[in-house]
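dude i think i finally got it to work??
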Amino acid sequence: MNNQQMVMYEEEFNQIQVVVDRLVRDANAKVVFIVDKNGQLIAASGDIDNVDTTSLASLTAGNIAATGGIAKLLKENEFATQFHEGEKANIHIQLVGNRVILVVIFDSRSSLGLVRLRVKKATEELVTIFENLMKKVQEPGTAGGSPFSEITDEDIDNLFND
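look at this
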């Protein structure tokens, strides 16, 4: 899955968004977002108006890549969980099925214990969603096999006709 573009369908996106929205509420977080390992934002919820999600997504993916290098030096597969504590904001980062990155930003209104508990449940749900998505993408001959599978030559010709 590394360095591969992810195909996302509306059904799975909506399921992911429900999990992210619920995690913001249940963990009392400021912001929750999901990023692929290439740094592309997949979903976000919470007070995102005050956050540069594009930069944060890219930096988070870079952080995961750097930490992966450290893990290899220590003969670990990966460090699936990271936590960064600041004066006003804390960040909990969780790899989900080695496919995507779940980021929870929270402050003193929540606690690391609550965030970890809620992230564990959300991660289980997200793993299932992404596994189903991967099966859908890999099934040949189905609408999920390719985002272009339902486009015909006639559709393409009609697109370019005056």
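Residues 10-160 form a domain with the Beta-Lactamase fold (CATH 3.30.450.30).
im so relieved honestly
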